Every structure is written in structure tokens, then in C-alpha cells.
Amino acid sequence: MRKLKKLLAVASVAAMTLSLCACGGKKDDTYTVGICQLVQHEALDAATKGFKDALVEEFGEDGIKFDEQNAQGDANTCATIINGFVSSDVDLILANATPALQAAAAGTDTIPILGTSVTEYGVALELSDFNGTVGRNISGTSDLAPLESQADMIKELFPDAKTVGLLYCSAEANSQYQVDTVKAALEKLGYTCEYYSFSDSNDLSTVTTSAANASDVIYVPTDNTVAANTEIIKNICMPAKTPVVAGEEGICKGCGVATLSISYYDLGVATGKMAAKILKGESKVEEMPIEYAPQFTKKYNKDICDELGISVPDDYEAITNE
């Protein structure tokens, strides 16, 4: 009887050991990725989807786990989300939009961080010597479209305009960078430009009204606060008959007439492929240069253009609602 009890005890211990090993093996084979997205809008949503799709394609549904959280436009919430990822010791962090990247950079210097939908990494991270590679534990993809080409688009569409209002959120460093660059390019083309900055969505309506009344054309960069509130801008600019040229397609679909567009889904896919290389140990995040969208397309919002009586050249592609 004692011998039997001893055999049963050994068998029980062996079974528990195998169970623990099985659980440990599953954990080791599954990567956990924290996703901090600043706010919900079409461009950022597409980037996140592309990122996740690329990683699921690489590792399978069981090989990758996502902790996806949205900060609802609040930079302080980004910091809280990132701190949670750090406490959970995730394998990698995706920071979708500039404030999310800034929070991630402040939150950890060990966990690999990839940014996406970030316009200019040197500006976002206050790097005076940025040369295309951030270094430390940060890399990612940029949604920067050629800003001089956006200025040229305004000249192409509105050659008789005199004044351009630059509408942007002053809390977003990359928005300031974009409007500064576009302003310089427009002034070389003979336009008079005026800044119209707002601190958050609370004063967007008032500032937009001022811009619409004083400008022949309004330019908005790839600005997350604008992207989340395009209906406000449309409802002000359409009655004023003031056309809006946008820095990205999602904003243009909501309130603009034209844009030089990239695919945010493809940008997310590129970021996901970078993440896969990091997780598999094929690349070191600190050595990976920032990647940029491979192509840009001139697009226009047919409904708004028709309503404002604006004709566009044949090389512009209509934005679809798909």
C-alpha cells in the first residue's frame, strides 16, 4: 500500500510538472504587444489594423496577443496606458500618434517602442541631431507627406487665392512643424499666410470661424484633434465657402477638398513587419531607421468640390467611402 501511495504521489508530481511546463511553453511562444492609440479616427484606426494584421500573419492568432487601449485624445491618459504596459512587461509597445510616442519614450527605455502615424520623430522627441535613426529603444514609421508638394497643390488648385489660413492644434508639436514648413513654401509662392491655432477641441469652433472668415483657403496638417472633429470644421467652412486642403485623407474625407494622401493601413503593415523582426531577434530596434510611406496620391473630395464649384485636374483620384 505504501508503495502504491508513493507511486501515485510521484505520478501526481510528474503530471503537475508537465502541466506547468505546458503553460510555460505557451507563454513563451506568445508575444504580448501593448498598443496605445491617441484617439479614434480613420487614419489611426487604419494604422493599428494594418499593424495587427501584419503580426497575426507572421505569428498566427495564437502567437501574438494585443493589449489595445485608446487614450480618447488625452495625452495624460497615454502616460497611464504606457505605465500599465511597463508594469505588465509587454514584449513591445506600439505608440500610435505623437503624444502616444512621447508618453512611451518617457515611460520606458528598455521595452522596444515603435511609433506610427508620427510625422517627424526629431521634432516629437526633441532630438537636435536626428538623422533618420532615433537610437535607444525607439523606431517606427512616419506619415509625413512632402510638405512643399502640399503647398504646390494649393497653388495648383487656387492660383488666384491671396490668403491661406493655417489651422492646427498648438498642443501637437508635429502640427506646428508642418504648418511652419508649409507656410514658408506658400510664402515663396506669393501667398499671405496666417496661423490659426487652438489648444484643444473646446476652442476649435471659434478659431475655425475666424480662419474661415479671413482666409481664401485653409490648410490643415495631419493633426489628430482636427481629424477627430472634422464635422465642426465642415459645418463652419462650407457655409463660408472656404475650401480646406488637408494633410491626410481622413481629414479630407470629413471636411476637405483635396489632399496628398498615403495609406495608413499600409503604414501600419510596415510597422508590423518591423515589430516582427524585433520580436524574432532579427533586428535591433535601436539600429532601425524610421521608415516612410513609399508613395503619395493626389486625392479630392468629390462631394465638397462639387458643392463649392471646384474643378480638379485629371490626375486627382476621388476619395471613396469604402
TrEMBL record:
The protein's matches in Gene3D superfamilies, at most eight in alphabetical order, are given as: 3.40.50.2300
Q: Which SUPFAM superfamilies match?
A: Periplasmic binding protein-like I
InterPro entries for this protein: ABC_transpt-TYRBP-like, Peripla_BP_I
Keyword Signal appears in the UniProt entry: yes
The record's PROSITE patterns line, in alphabetical order, gives: PROKAR_LIPOPROTEIN
Q: Does the keyword Nucleotide-binding apply?
A: no
Q: Which UniProt keywords apply?
A: Signal
As given in the record, the signal peptide range reads 1-22
**CDD domains to which the protein is assigned, alphabetical:** PBP1_ABC_unchar_transporter (cd06325)
Question: What domain of life does the UniProt record list for this protein's source?
Answer: Bacteria
Name the PANTHER family for this protein. Answer: ABC TRANSPORTER, SUBSTRATE-BINDING LIPOPROTEIN, ABC TRANSPORTER, SUBSTRATE-BINDING LIPOPROTEIN-RELATED
Question: What's the protein called, per UniProt?
Answer: ABC transporter substrate-binding protein
Q: Upper taxonomic classification of the species?
A: Bacteria, Bacillati, Bacillota, Clostridia, Lachnospirales
